[in-house]
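[SOLVED] Need 3D model of a six-part complex

Original post:
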Amino acid sequence: MSRPSRSAPEHRGAGSHVRNGRGGARSAASGDAATRERLLAVATRLFSERGFRGVTVRDLSREANANLAAVNYHFGDKLGLYREVVAMALEDVHVDPTTDVAAESTPEERIRHYVTTYVPRLASPRGRAVWAQKIMRHEMNDPTPLAPWIAEVVILPRMRFLAEAVATLMGTDMGDPRVGRCVVSLQAQCLSYMPNRFREVAFPGWREMTDAEIRAAATHIADFTLAGIRRLAEQGE
Amino acid sequence: MSRPSRSAPEHRGAGSHVRNGRGGARSAASGDAATRERLLAVATRLFSERGFRGVTVRDLSREANANLAAVNYHFGDKLGLYREVVAMALEDVHVDPTTDVAAESTPEERIRHYVTTYVPRLASPRGRAVWAQKIMRHEMNDPTPLAPWIAEVVILPRMRFLAEAVATLMGTDMGDPRVGRCVVSLQAQCLSYMPNRFREVAFPGWREMTDAEIRAAATHIADFTLAGIRRLAEQGE
Amino acid sequence: MSRPSRSAPEHRGAGSHVRNGRGGARSAASGDAATRERLLAVATRLFSERGFRGVTVRDLSREANANLAAVNYHFGDKLGLYREVVAMALEDVHVDPTTDVAAESTPEERIRHYVTTYVPRLASPRGRAVWAQKIMRHEMNDPTPLAPWIAEVVILPRMRFLAEAVATLMGTDMGDPRVGRCVVSLQAQCLSYMPNRFREVAFPGWREMTDAEIRAAATHIADFTLAGIRRLAEQGE
Amino acid sequence: MSRPSRSAPEHRGAGSHVRNGRGGARSAASGDAATRERLLAVATRLFSERGFRGVTVRDLSREANANLAAVNYHFGDKLGLYREVVAMALEDVHVDPTTDVAAESTPEERIRHYVTTYVPRLASPRGRAVWAQKIMRHEMNDPTPLAPWIAEVVILPRMRFLAEAVATLMGTDMGDPRVGRCVVSLQAQCLSYMPNRFREVAFPGWREMTDAEIRAAATHIADFTLAGIRRLAEQGE
DNA sequence: AATGAATGAGCCTTCATTCAT
DNA sequence: GATGAATGAAGGCTCATTCAT
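Solution:
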């Protein structure tokens, strides 16, 4: 075999999703890793714009000024490259500030913090790391074999974080079905501000939201949601 | 024969989306359903499961026990068949009871009615016309050239209906940006109960919601939303 | 079988080209022969515009407001319909005035007559019976199995007519190779004024010839050709 | 490899026709001609025999012992392959000796030179580059999107060359309509000796012209044409 | 006397992948 | 260490024709 020197690049099948995340060390800047990096950069952009199925290997090679076979050579196959991109997205999402709050913060503060950091990132096409969110969005619309992995790493922790805050706020425990419903209500509202292809296609006159509008939307969601949670807490199940 | 009265299958151009809706009379489901009918039935199922792009003409022909060219003969092309399916979906959605309320009902009643009729239809895979909702969902994820038509016929009327109710409830007019945000919050919550391919793929152990759970979710959304709206009405813009 | 009552409509194979030309009697205007006539009219137009291969059975049916199978029913197959059209064209060409001259006319008169009747018919897109010429042109560019028939009925008689005139003019007999070459030179010049698809496509700014220009071209060809013939007659073989 | 220096087969859009002509060096006909070369060879033969529309990608792949997708890989699409063939034809036509004459030659010499080099090339099926002429012929009968390019590179320069000679001979300028008509007369006579599918199909007994006959025909055209031109010069417009 | 429906072969193109150096 | 070349499967679509009333 004639593989590049990356540690254990045997491209695993669809069975195990988790990668070791490339470990940071950009492999001794050996110069000829440039193609691999360009491919990753291009893949990050294209996959986040069009999703896994919307991108062809030709698109990737062309835009990365790489050979058509380069994807296969460096990543085993198209899914292998996608897996690397998703891994970076997960890493990014995982350390994001959305659920990173001071230990002593109140549930209300946690929810406000979540919404006001999350919604602007979702809504703004210019924000940093939107690409990761776009990847997630594509996965939700049209899941790949990587979906379970993503669910486990991204979705569940957030749900738990929100569930804990909501449960505390309602004075109940996380098993209470009302908690789950509130979490769903909150999360659904946030996601609805994500840029949306249907909107672009179906409403040609659509105007991008301004930053002020995005902030207003976030505040709205927080107020709206907290009011809803309190109301449900009062009336019992 | 069970064809509608169009004498020759002359398939209109891309200009106008709107069909006259197959003329009603589904002509006595005679058991030996004509190829055209079988194709429509299969297309309804497959398109709602996998979306326009996820279905090939060969899939359709095979499952309908029809010749590969039958789609072209009866519907002009793949999009023509899809257009018929979408037309049925729109017809179905259009006459649905969701926005069909007594004239003297209060805004709150209207919202409760909307949610309690809409959510069960979205959530239950056994309900009638889920397929229509699935088509809509696919259109939102991966719009086809039919998206503008769908937006016009389905989305806008609902938004107007909800916006009117919300504005009345808040004592403001429909131009108030808070109204739009509340409508989005409500609609997002409803849609989050729609069956979801990501959920199926990512959470293999997912259990279908019972009817009771679905009803509980609908009630939750109504309570939650009304509480949110009232709260926002109090605090002003 | 369920054939229309036309005399012996057994559509022969590619072997024998010659038809009996429908004989005039439009078969007792039985009313339901209308489709057949419409088909013939449409076929005359379309085949002359686009040639045999450039027209589909669908085109014919559609424009004649006839069923897709009508062509097959009435004419056996596409070539059968084409054969009828060609038969009419041959009939038309055969009785045309090009070679129909007074018995006592001089060779020079005959040639002038040929050119001045032939060229305007070829050149003008509005002239009567251009369609027959267009059919011929298409046959020359892209022959069908009917080509030998056409050659026999149309090309050879004209060649003989011209050869006789040229031979007389040169004071030689028709076996003289110079005669054949002069005939070719004359015919080639005439044909070069026929409307030409390449010209339309390749020279978008092309302007149609006026009637005066067409007449001038015809006169030119006659003068040019007669001068050439006389010159060759002088110098011997 | 024997590919030209284009590193990746990125196939240009429909905008520009002109190619840089394969860079010349046909790379030592190494016997094991690469697929690309075999495809080009087969395409040259088939396109010149049957024209662009008369050849299918399957024909090309089969006869070149190549995969069905090879045409797409090497040339983008069928038209891309055809474009290369036409480019070679144009290059060939462009450097041909037809219009390449000594500067001090007389108009009569130029016309004789044109005819006596052009006609044998057109007439003889054994001559070099007849295929190029056949391509041109097909383009005239059934133009492709490449027609304007061909007109510009091939037709116009020749017309100009002939027009100049004729105008000088007639003692008039190139704007004189008689000049154009003489050029058409000349060119039409030349082209009439090109091998012709109709002739093959319609006259199965057709006998190939001998070289002597071809030479005689060329001489005939020159004499005939010069006589015609002189006659027209005398009689004025 | 005619037609709506269906058919099978074929069209060009695109795709992710693998091979042979 | 990497890539130009090739591949087979599949994509949507069009065609002339034939079948079953």
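Edit: The longest helix of chain C spans residues 211-235.
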